[in-house]
Specification:
Rossmann fold; 5-stranded parallel sheet; alpha/beta; single chain
């Protein structure tokens, strides 16, 4: 069965819209330069924010701006915004970690600040990171049993792989998690044994039907552009025949992630 990420996104939107309308949170997005993918993502956030009643300010700096200039802007936004996101990737000369550390933890709705990642490990997060939480929402809302199940995550990024693994092993969730990466040997053995397989590596079509356990739940977090088309890390048409549940790209994890960003803005405003 194909999981309809747009339908789940609309459910989340309905759950938060009335609360947002009452308190009218304000989100600031910091971007540097003119990266097309980043600008498209931020404009989409601004569009959805307008529909939900969230003021979204895009603060754009020139591509030759220094790390300190980006930090100074971020510090300024700390004083007036309810939530702050950084348009990534930043230009290579910018110290991304220094910029993220400049966001007040209680306004870091992407959950990238060291304090927020530390609280996530401890099981006491202010927010949960949006893309990993989107995966959790898919599993929960599709009534997928997680406790005791084998989960393989292909990808170890700070944005998806690592925080998602932390969330899945927390007491009360209780999955058994394997993280695979570019140095993993015999990837097939790890993916084939998974009850839940999550692809989040940014390699189009990496996961083939031969790598999937029959009846597994397959969640594709990958976003890649191939010949002008958006595709995931999973060879969808092949794997769909093997999986009990599968997310498409586009229309799977992405729409949910965006709505969860606004849920985090709501939480930030409420604190």
């Amino acid at each position: 069965m194909i999981i309809d990420g747009k339908a789940i996104a609309l459910q989340i939107e309905a759950e938060i819209k009335d609360k947002i309308c009452k308190i009218k949170p304000y989100l600031a997005a910091v971007t540097v330069g003119t990266n097309d993918a980043t600008q498209s993502y931020i404009r989409n956030i601004q569009k959805i924010g307008s529909e939900l009643g969230v003021a979204v300010e895009i603060a754009n700096l020139q591509s030759n701006s220094s790390t300190q200039e980006v930090i100074d802007l971020t510090l300024h936004l700390n004083s007036k915004a309810d939530g702050i996101i950084i348009g990534r990737p930043l230009p290579s000369h910018i110290d991304e970690q220094a910029v993220i550390a400049a966001i007040l933890p209680e306004k870091d709705i992407d959950c990238l600040h060291p304090i927020n990642l530390g609280r996530l490990i401890l099981g006491t997060p202010l927010f949960t990171p949006c893309t990993p939480q989107a995966v959790m929402e898919i599993l929960t809302r599709s009534n997928t049993k997680i406790s005791g199940k084998r989960v393989t995550i292909v990808g170890r990024s700070n944005i998806v792989g690592k925080p998602l693994a932390i969330m899945l092993i927390q007491k009360g969730v209780d999955a058994t998690v394997t993280i695979c990466h570019t140095k993993t040997k015999e990837l097939l053995l790890h993916t084939k044994s998974a009850d839940i397989l999550i692809a989040a590596v940014g390699f189009p079509g990496l996961i083939r039907a031969s790598m999937v356990k029959p009846g597994a739940v397959v969640i594709d977090v990958g976003i890649n552009v191939v010949e002008g088309k958006l595709v995931g890390d999973v060879e969808f048409k092949e794997v769909e025949k093997m999986a009990s549940l599968i997310t498409p790209v586009p229309g799977g994890v992405g729409p949910i992630t965006t709505r969860l960003l606004f849920r985090n803005v709501l939480l930030a405003k409420s604190k």
